[in-house]
Structure formats: C-alpha cells, structure tokens
UniProtKB/TrEMBL annotation:
<dbReference type="GO" id="GO:0016705">
    <property type="term" value="F:oxidoreductase activity, acting on paired donors, with incorporation or reduction of molecular oxygen"/>
</dbReference>
<dbReference type="GO" id="GO:0016226">
    <property type="term" value="P:iron-sulfur cluster assembly"/>
</dbReference>
<dbReference type="GO" id="GO:0051537">
    <property type="term" value="F:2 iron, 2 sulfur cluster binding"/>
</dbReference>
<feature type="domain" description="Rieske">
    <location>
        <begin position="182"/>
        <end position="284"/>
    </location>
</feature>
<dbReference type="GO" id="GO:0005506">
    <property type="term" value="F:iron ion binding"/>
</dbReference>
<dbReference type="InterPro" id="IPR001075">
    <property type="entry name" value="NIF_FeS_clus_asmbl_NifU_C"/>
</dbReference>
<dbReference type="GO" id="GO:0004497">
    <property type="term" value="F:monooxygenase activity"/>
</dbReference>
<dbReference type="Pfam" id="PF01106">
    <property type="entry name" value="NifU"/>
</dbReference>
<keyword id="KW-0411">Iron-sulfur</keyword>
<dbReference type="InterPro" id="IPR017941">
    <property type="entry name" value="Rieske_2Fe-2S"/>
</dbReference>
<dbReference type="InterPro" id="IPR034904">
    <property type="entry name" value="FSCA_dom_sf"/>
</dbReference>
<protein>
    <submittedName>
        <fullName>Fe-S cluster biogenesis protein NfuA</fullName>
    </submittedName>
</protein>
<keyword id="KW-0001">2Fe-2S</keyword>
<comment type="similarity">
    <text>Belongs to the NifU family.</text>
</comment>
<keyword id="KW-0479">Metal-binding</keyword>
<comment type="function">
    <text>May be involved in the formation or repair of [Fe-S] clusters present in iron-sulfur proteins.</text>
</comment>
<dbReference type="InterPro" id="IPR036922">
    <property type="entry name" value="Rieske_2Fe-2S_sf"/>
</dbReference>
C-alpha cells in the first residue's frame, strides 16, 4: 500500500461505514460488526507475532511508521506516550536546530502533551510554521491518542501555557493553510554545496545541501520579490571554515541557509519549509497558499 494511501486508511474506512448507513441502521450495524471482527483478528495475529519475536526485533518493528500505527490501534505498542513523543521530537530536532532552537517534552497529562520551546524558535518569524508542520505532525503521528499540544516558552512562567492554536494564528494570517507532506526523493540527488530548484504541489521551492543536511525554502527573495533561481552558496568573508551564505542572483541579498534563512545584510527572511524523512522517504511539508 502506498504511503499516502495508508495514512488515510482510517478516513476511508469511516467513509465506507457512513455509506453503508444508506441501507438502514441494520446495514451499518452489520458493517461495524464486520470491521470489528477483522480488527480483532488482526490484533490477535499481531499479538502472537510479537510474542514470537525478541526485544530487538520488536523495537525495529516499532520504528516503522506503518507498523507502529497498527500496533497502536491494537494497544500493542511497546512504548508509552511519553517515550513515543520524545522519540518523535528527536526526529525533528535537527530541523529546529536550523532555527537556532530546541524543543523538549515537559510532561504528558492525560490526553495533553506539554512541550517547551527554547532558543530563537520562540521569536523566529517561521516558528509558527515550524511548530505546525514539523513538531505537531511528528507528535500526533507518534501519539494519535492525544487530544491537544500545549507549548511553553523556556524561562517563562510554567503556568503561561500557549495553546498551539494561538501560535498557529500567524501561519494562517500570513496566507497559509495546513500543509501536506509530499515525498521529494529528488532531494537525495543534491550533492554537498549544491543548490537546486524544484516544484512540489505546484509551488516553486529551492533546496540546498550543506554537508549532510538538507534545507528547503520557498523560491522567493523577500528583498527584490523575485525568484531565487540561479542562487548559489558562497563562503562567508571572515567566517569560520564551512560557513556559507545563499546569495540572491538578482539583488545580491545574503541569507543564512543553515539558520532558517535569516538575512545577513539587512532585514528580511526566507520562508523555510520542514524537510524530514517520513516512512523512509524524504518529504517536504508544503502548505497551501491562500489565493
């Protein structure tokens, strides 16, 4: 089953159950009983499989996103909510590091996960989109049973909780809607020091690889309001070895590609997009732009 299909399997099952209701209450009841029997059978099978495996094999299965989702459905996942959330945060931490920030789990209270943001993630212009497209997605995928995520800024009053909905207001106000994670295997072809343009979901994006890390931005320079096509990485004058800048080919504005695309020679900020490996595929979270 393709990745994008199994992610939506629950919605398709619910749609089919709703459609069965057109045949009357009895038809829907029978459909629900059938689904319950199939789920129960697969659950019993998974339980038997896990009993036959050693701990290392179970751990490998739990790291697979599809298998982990099935284990969660049947209540067989070997890790509790807090452990799964910490593992999910470890997966997005490199991306947050590009924003000069970090995130950690404070606690899990019932169906609520509380997180702490540290560093410039609290004030970076792209913090909201970072949270919505990377952190929240990773946490909810790892722990679908949670109801809400609350965020606290580091060194703030722990009681001053910021619901994620409040942080995400800026995302929608800036003309973005929730994003789709779109597989972009072509990113793997970029070599260290290369910059390339590509299109996902009808949107022009710019990607660069610096050492082993990939960084993806919208193909738009906020200074000259033009495409960044033809941009290249350049050595930073007087900076430590390995420090590079991404220079707009039109207006020559300089951006830091490692730290969220902040402009180095004036005001301005590139628009970064999360890029993570999901289900073994390089994927980019591309938000829909409101027309």
């Amino acid at each position: 089953m393709a990745t994008d299909r199994w992610r939506e399997a629950g919605e398709r099952i619910e749609t089919l159950l709703a459609a069965s209701g057109t045949g009357g209450t009895a038809a829907r009841d029978r459909a629900e009983l059938l689904v319950a029997e199939v789920v129960g059978l697969y659950g019993a099978g998974w339980q038997r499989v896990l009993a036959l495996l050693d701990e290392a094999a179970v751990e490998r299965l739990a790291r697979d996103e599809l298998v982990a989702s099935l284990l969660l459905v049947h209540g067989l996942h070997p890790h509790d909510v807090a452990t799964r959330v910490r593992t999910a945060l470890d997966g997005v931490r490199p991306y947050l590091g590009s924003h000069g920030g970090d995130v950690r789990l404070i606690e899990v209270v019932g169906p609520v996960v509380r997180l702490e943001l540290d560093g410039s993630c609290r004030s970076c212009p792209s913090s909201s989109i970072t949270l919505e497209l990377a952190v929240e997605d990773a946490v909810r995928a790892a722990a679908p049973e949670i109801d809400s995520i609350e965020v606290v800024a580091a060194q703030a009053d722990p009681q001053q909780v910021i619901p994620t909905e409040a942080l995400f207001t800026r995302v929608h106000a800036n003309g973005h809607r929730a994003a789709d994670w779109i597989a972009a295997p072509e990113l793997a072809e970029l070599r260290p020091g290369e910059v390339g343009g590509f299109t996902l979901a009808g949107q022009a994006l710019l990607a660069c690889r610096i050492d082993d890390e990939l960084y993806v931005y919208r193909d738009h320079c906020p200074v000259c309001d033009r495409s960044m096509a033809g941009a290249a990485l350049h050595r930073r004058m007087g900076a430590p070895p390995g420090s590079v800048v991404l220079r707009c080919p039109s207006c020559r504005a300089h951006y830091d590609p490692v730290h969220a695309g902040i402009r180095l020679d004036g005001d301005g900020h590139l628009d970064p997009l999360p890029v993570l490996t999901r289900s073994g595929e390089l994927s980019v979270a591309v938000p829909e732009v409101v027309g």
